[in-house]
Each structure stands twice: as structure tokens, then as C-alpha cells.
Amino acid sequence: MIKKFNLSVNKPVKGLGDKIVGENECNVKIVKEAEEDSCSCCSADSEFSQVSQSIGSMMEKSNLEKLEIKERLEKKEDKQSKILILIGLTLTIPLVTLELLEFYDIIEESFIFGYLLLFLATPIQILLGRPFYKRFYNSIKKRKSFTVDTLVVLSTSVAYVYSVIALITNQDVIF
Known about the structure:
66% of the residues lie in helices and 10% in strands. By secondary structure, it is mostly helical. It has two domains: 64 residues, no CATH class; 90 residues. It contains four helices and three strands; from the N terminus they run E-E-E-H-H-H-H. A three-stranded antiparallel beta sheet has the order 1-3-2, with helices on one face. The chain is elongated and about 90 Å long. Strand 2 and strand 3 form a beta hairpin.
């Protein structure tokens, strides 16, 4: 006796006397071994219901596992974002403060001052810009249209490279 039902199954299911003869995302065929006695019809139906219940419980467990994994990934991403924000603030506040002090002539610009600004700006460019660079690279790789990430990557990269060149050629440096 062959019974079909629509169900998505990721793992093979073994019931009492059942053989799975084929499976895909939509259909699972369960072939019931024919029993010799007169009540084979009744036992096949009860076995079929047991198998369908076990498939349902496995799918529920699978969905719960997927949700738990998704929640763990979101927590990990949140933690990483918080760390990046703290690093960014830790490096940006001194950078902006030094630039303002130099702008209002409280501190005179020197050879070491430019390299100090470069030392503070480089981790910001690399660490905090990394997600933008990844998304920009993926959009270029997949030949998608330009996104906001393109604007961010191009503008910050051009400004950073200009400041490094200005530092090397001994011109006015603004990071």
C-alpha cells in the first residue's frame, strides 16, 4: 500500500515496518509492507499515523533549533557591533579633539602630530569600515547596482588616501 502526503523532511524517518523509497522537499512516499493477515489495512493506517506524528515532532524540533541558532547569531552580531562602537568612540574622540585644538591654534602642527592623527585614523578606517567594504565588494562582485555602501566606501577611502598623501608630501593634513 502506498500513501503520499505533502511534508518537508530533512532527515529520513523510520517507522514500524516502513521503508522510505524516495523523498524530496514536497513529498515523502512511505511503502507499507503488506501483512499476510486479514487486518493489514488497520495496522498500516495506525503505523502511518505514528510515522506522520514522528515527522511532525522532528520538524518542530528542527524549527526550534533554527530559531535558537538565529537568536545566538543575532546576539553575537549585537555584541560585535557594541565593541566596534566602543573602539570607534575611543579612537574618534581624541582624533576630533586634536584636530579642533590644531584648528584653533591651541596646538601647533608638527611632524609627529600628523603621524599621531594617522595612527588614530587608520584603525577607524579599517575596523569600522570593514562591513561597508565587504558589502561594497559583494555588490560589485555580483554586479548589482551601486548602493549607499558604495558612497561610504568611495568617500571615506578617497579622503583617507588624500590625507596620507598630504602627510607624506608634507602638506596640510586633515584626517
